[in-house]
């Protein structure tokens, strides 16, 4: 039976190539846009690089300090002092790592300027995030404590500065500080916000120690636990500490602190829609917004396809009439048309996947997201497949029901 | 004629309703893209109010709490050292950088209006050298030092919005500390200073005089140098050495304004370009869809058209009927979408979407959709008239 449906569908597609083309064009375009967006989102939420352990940590990125009554407020990233006074007192995380966030610096080598991203970190950073070392090693706890001038660089730095030589043992100068390279790691996609940089050095090499007195700054803290179910406990303990046991010195009379230990998605939500004076991330708003925009985006192509399919009912009325006269039930006809519409969406889906490969390649090559390498995995493929089927159903059901309701006598004559 | 066509449309209301829905959604897409494009184009047309060529920003990161007494000495040393370099034309201070999404906004209540503005600090002579245009009054200078007021320059928009038809020169306005401290005296009005670049909205702007010798002066970490035309980026290394030899504890980063401008422009345009490409393909898809539906409709109505021809309608009349039908369906779709869209400026959802932008986008989007549908109906119209009446009547 199914074979017959497929054969009929094939003949119908070939009969009006223009319509088949419009359908395929719409489907592949819609799907490839959705696939590209979801691949980027997926790579962000489930990183495959150093942040592959993201299921086991939460990051504290933002902090709001305020006075009673909120008349004076600082908002932004954390300072070292705040981390030391408060986050280091948490008991639930197994490991806590801190870093300065990444910022641009200029590296000069043989009279050439290279603009690179720079990050100062502690030693735990290398235990929590799984960097892929090409050569050398990371710096140890002892080296951090002693403030040694050692650096880990990305393979991009190795190539652009030292060309064919190994970077290990060479020196680089950042803001007139000389660091010896002890390790080279694979480039990190900028999508992995907490890991991405080109040069990593111990935070104890900061030229002045004034950062130790600042509650606000550019820092972030990564809180790790090997049991992912404990992560919400970490957030709870942190919020509890902010509410009841906060230590805040030299803070211009500010006594309130709002912050949270969030997952990657929650941190995006907090940055975009979060309430400054809240301990929550408002992640629900972000998810709702994403769902609404995907549905809205699929609406136009769906209606377009329904329109086309409805307008073609007449073209096939004699065929429907014959089938009805020979005893086909309405549900059999609906099934047949849905199979047809799913077939064409699947074909469009294949084009869409190929197209999204190209588009992702363009995004990677363009350098918009530095070092981005989008892995295309099963989960995205299944999502895409689900979208295709949904699309096929949406655009197939209504026309199919309409077709199956034709009066057989009229249909045989070619009328509707 | 129109009445007759409306009746025809009503007879096929189910399938026309779907086309109307499609047109309405497509219209919303076109409207949004046009509104975005027109707004950004308008913003781009407005001059920046300053000159960014060959100007580099030295951003210092000063460790610890700002101490004017100690840190201004260093800043003055840095200024002097940089001015002495032959490649450097002039050196000035600017508190908040240009072409970065980093700004200081403030507001206070005055009578029944809230005065809100974006502010910045510059030193004497900076305004002239940044190429800013003075409309009234004077720039501030050494004569404003050690007075009981702080000299302020305000933008033309600031005057127009908050003090229209008043002579603002010599007037005192409040500082950001609160309205009780009316010790900021306006000495001049400048055209504008679009700190956030070409695609930023127009905001009332104020510039405060930065006193390099006052102990009350606030945190200042931006030194702007004008290099001679053609100075290459290699010079940055020389600069860096100079800077770190004077202030070894400070960290510096140097970036030409032009670089910041380029990355900011790219950041502003990129989402627009991506949206336009996706929107363009959506519209193309809609166009092909309308074309296909109409073609199909015309073929299925061959007999009806044959009948009309048989009783004397000319090919032109048939063509007109086909096109009019689609245009009217389109117009209904546009009206439906407009009813929804008009809520946006009515409710003030986007403050940037004012009535004039709304009207012009609406008009252009309507014209676009009508032309698009006329183009889509043209070929099916020809198909409809291509059959001879006798053939058409027999057509099955």
3D architecture notes:
The complex is a heterodimer of chains A (416) and B (396). With 416 residues, chain A is of the alpha+beta class. Chain A has two domains: 2-47 and 285-413, no CATH class; 62-261, no CATH class. Chain A is 48% helix and 18% strand. Chain A has 13 helices and 14 strands. Chain A has helices at 2-15, 17-45, 80-85, 124-128, 141-145, 155-162, 231-244, 264-273, 283-311, 317-325, 330-366, 378-404, 408-413, and strands at residues 57-60, 63-66, 73-78, 95-99, 103-109, 112-121, 133-136, 150-154, 171-174, 177-185, 199-202, 216-217, 220-224, 256-259. In chain A, the strands form three sheets. In chain A, strands 5, 6, 7, 8, 9, 10 and 11 form a seven-stranded mixed β-sheet that branches. Chain A has a four-stranded antiparallel β-sheet with strand order 12-3-2-14. In chain A, helix 8 (264-273) packs across helix 9 and helix 9 crosses helix 12 (378-404). Chain A is elongated. Chain A starts with a helix and ends with a helix. The mean pLDDT of chain A is 86. Chain B folds into two domains: 2-45 and 268-394, no CATH class; 96-215, no CATH class. Chain B is built from twelve helices and eleven strands. Chain B has helices spanning 2-11, 13-45, 68-84, 126-129, 156-162, 235-246, 257-300, 302-310, 315-341, 343-347, 355-386, 389-394, and strands spanning 55-61, 88-93, 104-110, 113-122, 134-137, 150-155, 172-173, 184-190, 205-209, 222-227, 251-256. The longest helix of chain B is centred in the last third of the chain and has 44 residues, at 257-300. In chain B, the strands form two sheets. In chain B, strands 3, 4, 5, 6, 7, 8 and 9 form a seven-stranded mixed β-sheet that branches. Chain B has 396 residues and is α+β, with helices and mostly antiparallel strands.
């Amino acid at each position: 039976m199914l074979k017959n449906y497929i054969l009929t569908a094939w003949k119908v597609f070939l009969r009006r190539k223009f319509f088949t083309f419009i359908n395929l064009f719409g489907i592949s375009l819609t799907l490839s846009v959705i696939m590209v967006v979801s691949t980027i989102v997926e790579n962000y939420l489930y990183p495959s690089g150093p942040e592959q352990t993201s299921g086991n940590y939460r990051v504290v990125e933002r902090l709001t300090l305020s006075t009673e009554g909120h008349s004076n407020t600082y908002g932004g990233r954390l300072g070292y002092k705040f981390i030391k006074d408060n986050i280091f007192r948490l008991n639930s995380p197994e490991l806590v790592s801190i870093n300065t966030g990444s910022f641009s610096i200029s590296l000069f080598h043989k009279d050439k300027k290279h603009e690179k991203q720079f990050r100062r970190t502690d030693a735990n950073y290398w235990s929590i995030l799984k960097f892929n070392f090409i050569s050398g090693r990371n710096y140890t706890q002892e080296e951090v404590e002693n403030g040694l001038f050692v650096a880990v660089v990305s393979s991009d730095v190795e190539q652009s500065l030292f060309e064919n030589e190994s970077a290990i043992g060479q020196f680089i100068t950042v803001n007139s500080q000389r660091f010896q390279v002890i390790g080279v790691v694979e480039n990190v996609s900028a999508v992995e916000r907490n890991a991405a940089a080109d040069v990593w050095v111990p935070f104890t090499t900061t030229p002045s120690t004034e950062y130790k007195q600042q509650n606000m700054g550019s820092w972030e803290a990564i809180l790790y636990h090997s049991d992912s179910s404990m992560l919400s406990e970490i957030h709870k303990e942190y919020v509890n500490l902010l509410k009841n046991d906060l230590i805040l010195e030299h803070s211009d009379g500010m006594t309130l602190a709002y912050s949270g230990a969030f997952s990657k998605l929650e941190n995006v939500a907090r940055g975009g829609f979060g309430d400054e004076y809240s301990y929550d991330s408002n992640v629900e708003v972000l998810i709702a917004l994403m769902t609404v925009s995907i549905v809205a985006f699929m609406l136009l192509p769906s209606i377009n396809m329904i329109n086309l399919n409805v307008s073609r009912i007449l073209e096939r009325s004699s065929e429907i009439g014959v089938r009805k006269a020979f005893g086909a039930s309405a549900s059999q006809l609906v099934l047949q048309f849905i199979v047809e519409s799913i077939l064409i969406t699947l074909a469009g889906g294949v084009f869409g996947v190929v197209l999204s490969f190209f588009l992702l390649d363009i995004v990677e090559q363009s350098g918009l997201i530095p070092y981005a390498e989008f892995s295309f995995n099963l989960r995205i493929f299944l999502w895409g497949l689900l979208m295709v089927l949904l699309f096929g159903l949406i655009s197939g059901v209504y026309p199919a029901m309409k077709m199956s309701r034709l009066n057989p006598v009229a249909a045989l004559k070619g009328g509707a | 004629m129109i009445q007759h066509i409306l009746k025809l449309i009503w007879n096929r209301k189910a399938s026309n309703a779907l086309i109307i829905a499609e047109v309405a959604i497509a219209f919303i897409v076109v409207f949004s893209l046009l509104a975005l494009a027109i707004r950004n184009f308008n913003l781009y047309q407005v001059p920046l109010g300053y000159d960014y060529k060959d100007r580099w920003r030295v951003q210092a990161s000063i460790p610890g709490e700002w101490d004017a007494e100690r840190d201004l000495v260093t800043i003055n040393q840095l200024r002097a050292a940089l001015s002495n370099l032959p490649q450097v034309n002039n050196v000035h201070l600017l508190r908040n950088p240009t072409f970065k999404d980093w700004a200081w906004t403030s507001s206070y209540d005055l009578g029944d209006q809230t005065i809100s503005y974006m502010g910045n600090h510059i030193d004497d002579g900076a305004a002239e050298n940044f190429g800013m245009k003075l409309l009234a009054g004077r720039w501030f200078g050494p004569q404003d030092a050690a007075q009981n007021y702080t000299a302020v320059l305000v933008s033309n928009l600031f005057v127009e919005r908050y003090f229209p038809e008043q002579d603002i020169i010599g007037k005192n306005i409040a500082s950001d500390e609160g309205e009780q401290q009316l010790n900021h005296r306006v000495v001049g009005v400048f055209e504008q200073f679009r700190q956030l670049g070409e695609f930023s909205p127009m905001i009332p702007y104020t510039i405060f005089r930065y006193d390099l010798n006052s102990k009350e002066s606030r945190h200042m970490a931006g030194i702007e140098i004008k290099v001679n035309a053609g100075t290459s980026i290699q010079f940055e290394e020389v600069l860096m050495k100079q800077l770190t030899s004077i202030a070894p504890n400070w960290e510096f980063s140097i970036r030409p304004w032009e670089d910041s401008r380029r990355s900011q422009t790219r950041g502003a345009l990129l989402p627009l370009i991506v949206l336009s490409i996706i929107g363009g393909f959506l519209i193309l898809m809609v166009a092909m869809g309308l074309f296909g539906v109409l073609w199909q409709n015309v073929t299925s109505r061959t007999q009806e058209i044959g009948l009309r021809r048989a009783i004397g309608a000319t090919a032109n009349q048939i063509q007109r009927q086909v096109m009019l039908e689609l245009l009217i369906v389109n117009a209904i779709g546009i009206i439906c979408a407009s009813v929804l869209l008009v809520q946006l400026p009515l409710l003030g959802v986007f403050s940037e979407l004012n009535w004039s932008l709304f009207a012009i986008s609406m008009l252009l989007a309507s014209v676009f959709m009508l032309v698009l549908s006329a183009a889509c109906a043209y070929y099916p119209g020809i198909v409809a008239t291509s059959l001879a009446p006798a053939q058409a009547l027999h057509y099955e």
